[in-house]
Amino acid sequence: xAFIGISxxxxxxxxxxxxxxxxxxxxxxxxxxxxxxxxTPIGFTGAYIGGGVTEDSRVDNSIKYRxxxxxxxxxxxxxxxxxxxxxxxxxxxxxxxxxxxxxxxVVAVVQNFKDAxxxxxxxxxxxxINVTAQDSAMVSVAARFKGKGWMVAAGWEHVKFSNPSDxxxxxxxxxxxGTVVGAVNVTPYNVVPATGAAPIEVDKTQNLYYLSAxxxxxxxxxxxxxxxxxxxxxxxxxxxxxxxxxxxxxASGPFAKAAGNNEYASLVLDYKWTKALDAYLGxxxxxxxxxxxxxxxxxxxxxxxxxxxxxxxxxLGLRYKF
Length: 322
Prior knowledge:
This protein has 322 residues and is mainly beta. Helices cover 4% and strands 54% of the residues. It has helices at 22-26, 41-44, 167-171; strands spanning 2-8, 12-20, 58-69, 72-79, 91-99, 104-121, 128-147, 150-162, 175-176, 179-180, 183-188, 204-216, 221-232, 239-241, 247-249, 260-272, 277-290, 310-320.
């Protein structure tokens, strides 16, 4: 983040610059594992707090306003579009409302991004980045209940990806984050081909559901656990247009996937030696099923990938707070 702003106890806070999304602001208090980056999907990938795209978990050239009215907190955020040289989303509008009267809390967030840019490495070509352009719309609702030494939280997030608003400009991207690379392969999501073929809109949707909790076994020993499942729709259809102008049906392209799930189960044990020093031991198991396991499970060409649709993460560490 890099921002400036003004604040008033009654009037709220107004800030400008590169800032976290509104969902990023509130989620640490609505996840029993506190967005632990090793042990929760909400923590280790910005996609779940960035409106569906990791690069948008923080928003450039944005205006954010937040005000707290007794038990209700209202926030709004807008990204100024059309910024020269920007390869992040061209514009975005976000809003949130939270009601937190005490032990109970509930929050709702909506986020809409136009021409959101997602990047990934290209394993087949050195110094090449794969870029996907898309519009994304997200709505999220989460609730928590906490007492002395414990908290339970649950939530739901719905994301829809569709055609980018400005696919021709998106397809002309030659740099990413201000850096000229060897090549940028741009793939606007489900763009109608320039050949005049009838549009086939196949939006990709996903729904994340989660339940998490933490509780103090003793004054020094805390246990946190969570279960997260992301259900992705079938989106094997529609058309794509590459930067070269080639058009093809996604039934044979990179977006051709049947419905599938991403599942995660986590457990973290934390022991406080002193107020400043603690030790943690954590574990997360993840599994991809259905279409989300495509390319991860064994086939005739890659038999060695038989077990790569599951993954385990272990973490052990000491932490000292100054």
